[in-house]
Amino acid sequence: MLSSIKRFLIGRPLKSTELGEQKLNKTKALAILSSDALSSVAYGPEQILIVLMTVGAAAYWYSIPIAVGVLVLLLALILSYRQIIFSYPHGGGAYVVSKRNLGMYPGLVAGGSLLVDYILTVAVSVSAGTDAITSAFPELHAYNLPISIVFVLCLTVLNLRGVTESATILAYPVYLFVLALFILIGVGIFNIATGHASPELHTPIGTPVAGLSLFLLLRAFASGSSALTGVEAISNAIPNFKDPAPNNAARTLVAMGSLLAMLFSGIVFLAYYYGVSPSEQVTVVSQIAEHTFGRNVFYYFIQGTTALILILAANTGYSAFPLLAVNLAKDKFIPRMFTVRGDRLGYSNGIIILGFFSILLLLAFEGKTEHLIPLYAVGVFIPFTLSQTGMMVKWIREKPEGWIVKLIINTTGACISFIVTMIFFFTKFAQVWTVLIFLPLIIWIFTRIHKHYEAVADQLRITTCEPVKPIEGNVIILPVAGITHVVENSLNYAKSLGAGQIIAVYVPFEREDEAAFQEKWKKWQPDIRLVTLHSPYRSIIQPLTKFIDTVQRKASESHYQVTVVIPQFIPKKGWHNFLHNQSSLLIRAHLLYRRDVIITTVPYHLKK
User: Fold this and answer.
1) Is the pTM higher than 0.90?
2) Using N-to-C axis directions, what is the helix angle for 214-224 and 44-52, rounded to 10°?
3) pLDDT tens for each residue of 117-132
4) What single-letter DSSP state applies at residue 469?
């Protein structure tokens, strides 16, 4: 039944030879990897205005030069990550760049920051999208958390079905959002050019503003830079592109940067010209749409696609998190299970873990994750700073042709990213201080896992001088509950294992049963040793596991291998198995993680 459900949800398994068919072309990659960056247009300009409104609406004209500064940073990031794509074509982005050029610990800081950031991407995006839906339908507001969790589960299942399938489905809403905003910006600019929008709605550029400080402008710039979250995702996901992967990834990155720059600029300009003020009840994009169209079908089209893109922005995390986890796992900083491809050739373990932790985050904050946005942004700008600095070191060290221009680009990006990071810490410390706790904790976990893998590798390496102790025999423990064909079948299997000592173990609850069984066993199998473990408290597991531990300790001293053979019969109907084999299943579950003990189940198939 579970297998049928899995097939229904995920689809048929794909052969390894079909991996090439799961690669993304530029059109699908742009949709699936740019959703996070493009969706930030819905809140990035608003973040600038929220800061400026503290000194009055007259300061809104500063959103224009601040937006120019954000675009300069965007240009530096796009050019830098384009260089990263060609320099490190196997993916990994900021983690790989930082690790190779700055050292292991800066690399782990970048990798750890991005892993957490992708979890926050899913939680924040889904929560924001759910808020947009429940704002339109207030009667659903009490169900924000369940709705958010359902969205995460749906995205998780969709990504488990494969990269291509999820990209095919999710491409349409992303491009609809881009189309909707281009219509909004185009009609808005047309109205302004034709005089249909009053110039008296805004303060002229250059108007003096009392109380405005450089610190406030830097804070507004940092807040507006939250629109750049997700820019790094393409450099992490290069292996998902069709060949030539680096070229396709670079072109997709440039396309994403161009779209983001145009949409961001257009929304900032219209918000300024219309004199839009941020409101808790109505978003800036909603106000611009109402100014432009009124409350008609175009307004609701823009609102609907905006809500949809906010939810689907989470899919950028599902695309980039597993591939970043693969790079960390290959370097032995997280479990190797993250390198294993699932039935649909995606890195299923990374997808499932991302979904699991995103749901935990939603539960912990009851679906209200808006105050995590600063933490979400600073989690991106730390890797931005490290990756730019890493590329600076690379150019200075290698000095390839044209390295001066590349160095200037990366130096500009590193300086601006560092300034933004520091502004976040100084102005929003109450919201981002946790990064000072979880980052060292994550790095400590990474290093502990790495030390474990290295220690195990040293012991397993055949070039080591330590001799392997030979196994001199086998001790087979056979739990029995009666004299039946099932026990006989298991006993024959135990004998087939070759020379060794077979010990049958019987756990009676009454002394009379103990004596009676010993008598029957002596007549049936006189050559097989029987050990009875009387259990006055009617527990099978406790006396059995204690006996196995005792035998195992003695066997290890004599270099013997202990094997536990568990009898089990298989009825014709699968669900009957649970009715008849609770003890077998329980014994196996308790012994599953025992060291130095081999556990095997011997089936006996019933004919009826």
Assistant:
1) no
2) 160
3) 888 888 888 887 787 6
4) P
